[in-house]
Amino acid sequence: MYFPLIQFRFGSIPNISIRVCETVKGRISFRELAMIFPIHFLLSTLGVQLLGLFLPHTLEKYAINPITYSETNLWIIDFLREVFVNTIFCVGVLVVPELLKINGIKRGYALLILYPLYSFSVDADLNASTFSPNMLYALRYVNKHEEIPLKQWCHVLGPVIGGVLGGKIMRTAFPDEKKQP
Description:
mainly alpha
């Protein structure tokens, strides 16, 4: 009963990059983003904590281990790769389903079309982006690794900056229809 109201109010894609993109595009106010941002981190941390409580001990170490990226590349290289893939992700997630809908194709194929983004490497070990800095933090926090190393911060900041650039692209290339007065 409440889900359609929440979906109407906050959108259907609970991802920090997408939320930042929609803020730059003008769909979400900065005030709403300031409210949503900590909620993403809190709920991710709570979800990982609960998952750790309910999983058998043998699966727990695999399911909630912290995600670590290689630190052999220069920080700026990993940062630029993270920004690039998250910018394309934001634009793709918001545009591809609409293009499919316009052409009479099921929107479910959008994930298949966007699949190459999920395997685009953002570090020297060919690891893909998590598209979710809140999950990087949550997994480290629950495993008592509360600090994110400085060289790993490119994977926290990259999705946010990617959201900003994605929003600028969306505002320019795919503007929303103007509301009639």
